[in-house]
């Protein structure tokens, strides 16, 4: 199956990849659920909301600074690097991710659509104006927006918020054009991201699923691999290299 997939990739023009928590888990990115210690008594749903931020921005920023510190120690894994290299075999190539850890960019993927934002970026809580990436946040003195004076918050999608309109629209657009669509490390349960592979399949794309467990996509996939992305994707890249060209 992998050799047949490699042949299909070499004949394709546009490729799209959707990734979920599974590929980040292979790098050791923590889920931040059920942890012991200071933050163990909180659920993400209690902190990752605008209501929580407005009520107590200090504690929300303390939590995000703690998360950033932990996630800053995590590195891309072989699956991230393989996806970055996979783009060499397509004229057009996009990685769409539900993850906020920035690992696809760190691995070198040139075009990444971050549906849920990026935990290392900041924006205004009022006008959404982005602030410099190197801005450090002191939870006791949260900086304000230079444009409107609103408090600065993490540039991630919180519970109850819509995905960035332009980003999700572009994700649907590339999915409709895709010749091959890869669903990697995602349960295919969270919408609207879960709709992307369905849309791609309806528009004629070859659908490839890489996930250790079966998902709702499995029965519709042209190629479905019960495997970890960090193991299977480098093998796929090896096949493509041996066949030559890119």
Task: Describe the secondary-structure layout.
Layout: H1 2-11, E1 14-19, H2 21-25, H3 44-47, H4 50-55, H5 57-71, H6 78-86, E2 92-97, H7 103-107, E3 112-114, E4 117-124, E5 152-156, H8 165-177, E6 180-184, H9 195-202, E7 206-210, E8 223-225, H10 229-243
Parallel strand pairs: 1-2, 1-6, 2-3, 6-7, 7-8
Antiparallel strand pairs: 4-5
Walk me through what this model shows.
With 246 residues, the chain is α/β, with parallel strands linked by helices. It has two domains: 2-28 and 76-116 and 163-243, Rossmann fold, CATH 3.40.50; 44-73 and 123-156, SIR2/SIRT2 'Small Domain', CATH 3.30.1600.10. It is built from ten helices and eight strands. The chain has helices at 2-11, 21-25, 44-47, 50-55, 57-71, 78-86, 103-107, 165-177, 195-202, 229-243, and strands at residues 14-19, 92-97, 112-114, 117-124, 152-156, 180-184, 206-210, 223-225. It has a six-stranded parallel sheet, sandwiched between helices. A two-stranded antiparallel sheet has the order 4-5. The protein is elongated. The mean pLDDT is 93.
Q: H/E series, N to C?
A: HEHHHHHEHEEEHEHEEH
Oligomeric state: single chain
Question: In CATH's first tier, which class of the largest domain applies?
Answer: Alpha Beta
Arithmetic mean pLDDT? 93
Largest sheet data: 6 strands, parallel
- What class, by secondary structure content? alpha/beta
The amount of helix comes to 25-40%
Q: How many domain regions?
A: 2
Distance between the termini: 20 Å
Low-confidence stretches: none
How is the largest sheet built, in terms of strand order? 3-2-1-6-7-8
Please tell me the CATH architecture of the largest domain by its name. Answer: 3-Layer(aba) Sandwich
EC number: 2.3.1.286
Cofactor: Zn(2+)
Catalytic activity: N(6)-succinyl-L-lysyl-[protein] + NAD(+) + H2O = 2''-O-succinyl-ADP-D-ribose + nicotinamide + L-lysyl-[protein]; N(6)-acetyl-L-lysyl-[protein] + NAD(+) + H2O = 2''-O-acetyl-ADP-D-ribose + nicotinamide + L-lysyl-[protein]
Enzyme class: transferase
């Amino acid at each position: 199956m992998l050799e047949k997939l490699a042949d299909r990739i070499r004949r394709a023009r546009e490729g799209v990849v959707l990734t979920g928590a599974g590929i980040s888990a292979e790098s050791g990115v923590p889920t931040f659920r059920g942890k012991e210690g200071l933050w163990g008594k909180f659920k993400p749903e209690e902190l990752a909301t605008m209501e929580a931020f407005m009520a107590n921005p200090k504690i929300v920023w303390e939590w995000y600074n703690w998360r950033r510190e932990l996630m800053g120690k995590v590195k891309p894994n072989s699956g991230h690097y393989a996806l970055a290299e996979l783009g060499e075999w397509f004229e057009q190539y996009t990685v769409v991710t539900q993850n906020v850890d920035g690992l696809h960019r760190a691995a070198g993927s040139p075009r990444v659509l971050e549906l849920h934002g990026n935990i290392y970026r900041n924006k205004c809580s009022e006008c959404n104006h982005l602030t410099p990436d190197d801005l450090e946040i002191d939870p006791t003195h949260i900086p304000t927006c230079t444009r409107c004076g609103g408090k600065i918050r993490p540039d991630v999608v919180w519970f109850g918020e819509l995905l960035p309109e332009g980003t999700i629209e572009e994700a649907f657009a590339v999915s409709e054009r895709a010749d091959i669509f890869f669903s990697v490390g995602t349960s295919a349960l969270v919408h609207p991201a879960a709709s992307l592979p369905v849309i791609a399949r309806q528009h004629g794309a070859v659908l490839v699923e890489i996930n250790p467990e079966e998902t709702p996509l499995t029965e519709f996939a042209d190629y479905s691999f019960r495997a970890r992305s960090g193991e299977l994707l480098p093998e796929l890249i090896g096949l493509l290299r041996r066949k030559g060209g890119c």
